[in-house]
Amino acid sequence: MYMYTQGHSRIVSTGIYLPEERVTSIHLLETIDSKNRFDIPYDWLDRMMGINERRVAAPDMLPSDMAAKAAQEALEIAGVHPRDIDAIIYAGVVRDYLLEPATAHVVQDKIKAYNAVAFDVTNACHGFMNGIHLMDALIATGQARRGLIVTGEQGTRYTYKAIDALRQTADRSLFVKLAGGLTLGDAGAAMIMGPKLEPDTGFMGFMLQSQGQYSRLCTCGKDGQESLLETDMANIIEQGIAMLGDMYDVFMKKLGWKPEEIAKFVHHQVGRKVFRHHAKYAKVSLEIMPDTVSTLGNLVTANIPLNLYNLDKNHEVKSGEKVFIAGAGSGLAISQTGIVWNAA
Questions:
Q1: Which helix (H) or strand (E) holds 247?
Q2: Is residue 151 located within the same domain as residue 206?
Q3: Residues sharing a CB contact under 8 Å with residue 182, sequence separation 6 or more, in sequence order
Q4: Cβ(342)–Cβ(202) under 8 Å?
Q5: Name one GO molecular function term (predicted).
Q6: 167: pLDDT confidence band, cut at 50, 70 and 90?
Q7: What angle do the packed helices 303-313 and 127-140 form, to 10 degrees?
Q8: Are 37 and 75 in contact (CB under 8 A)?
Q9: Over the range 225-260, which residues count as b (16 or more CB within 10 Å of their CB) and which as e?
């Protein structure tokens, strides 16, 4: 039912890139005149999802540009030269090219990490967590000593596709179906991983699960073509939280952790309401959950690494403290990871 592996690596550094432009949720709903078209108040995204604004990438910026900028910051923080990177995984949903080449190769060229093996991993919002798990395995088997995982999410591409469609209709059911696309924001994120410094620090374990019977709850790109993002938000959140709740006790037992030992609880953020659901099954306080969804929206695969970046930059976690990560993505795919924080 669950895939479990012990952790063999640590986070060496993280990096992010945030576009400068900010767009409020009220502005988006005013653009489609949601109050008159669908009887949806202009502050609906603020009240129901807890999303006030998001960042929007410049029209000429590619996903690889955002990923490369985040990677460059991670390299600078770690003091690692690009030639010392052994593997690059691009884990984003949005890519430079629909089919070929892999965006990881484009990032490799932009940061000049020519000694690395590069490839893409895609699994909706869960892609970065899969990338971490795979990189841990490469490090564990000696195939890589320094691994780089990157993403460059431009979810607002699908926000504006939804807006274009909603401006042509007064069908409230279509608004509900496309509302997930209105929650998205843009960001780049990167993580450099390396071998553990001490056995009892770094990634302590990973647990993963996939449930394909829920694969139709969020779809985009049918027949390999660009299309609208259609989401059954209520159902996908309900099923995802149920899966994570069932996994939690099993994984915590594997780790040998107790809820009160968790210093920070980082999870994939699609809206503010899910925070309470996570807190309930995990038996932890909302106060230990970092919040970026309010000001950045749903950052797809960039959300979790960005929150880990903030924890490190703001010195919110001390060496030896425990950080719990809950990842999720449509499909449905979920994972949980435990980290004993270490100073890089």
A1: helix 233-255
A2: no
A3: 25, 28, 29, 45, 159, 162, 163
A4: yes
A5: 3-oxoacyl-[acyl-carrier-protein] synthase activity
A6: very high
A7: 70
A8: no
A9: eeebbbbbbeebbebbbebbeebbeebbebbebebe
81-106 residue pLDDT tens? 999 999 999 999 999 998 899 999 99
pLDDT tens per residue across span 18-56: 999 999 999 999 999 999 999 999 999 999 999 999 999
Asked whether residue 333 is domain-assigned, the answer is: yes
How confident is the model over 228-253, as pLDDT tens digits? Answer: 999 999 999 999 999 999 999 999 99
237 and 175 within one domain: no
Look at strands 230-231 and 262-267 and give their pairing.
unpaired
- Beta bridge mates, 88: 118, 148
Q: Do both 81 and 97 map to the same domain?
A: yes
Of 311, 316, 315, 245, which is closest to residue 277 (Cα–Cα)? 245
- Read off the CATH number of the domain in which 27 is found: 3.40.47.10
Per residue in 306-323, pLDDT (tens digit) is: 999 999 999 999 999 999
Q: Are 127 and 121 in contact (CB under 8 A)?
A: yes
Whether residues 64 and 103 share a domain: the answer is: yes
Number of other residues whose CB lies within 10 A of the CB of residue 59: 5
Q: What percent of the chain has pLDDT over 90?
A: 96
pLDDT of residue 227: 83
What is the SS3 assignment for 207?
A: strand
Determine the longest span between alpha carbons in the chain, in angstroms.
60
**What single DSSP character describes residue 184?**
B
Enter the pTM of the model.
0.97
Task: Indicate the helix (H) or strand (E) that contains 74.
Answer: helix 63-78
Tell me, what DSSP letter sits at residue 158?
H
Domain that includes residue 71, residue range: 13-194
- Could you list the beta-strand ranges (E) of the chain: 3-6, 9-17, 21-24, 53-56, 87-90, 117-120, 147-154, 186-195, 202-210, 218-219, 230-231, 262-267, 322-329, 333-340
* Together in a domain, 215 and 163: no
Residues 21 and 76 in one domain: yes
Q: Can you give the three-state secondary structure of 12-38, one letter per residue?
A: EEEEEECCCEEEEHHHHHHHCCHHHHH
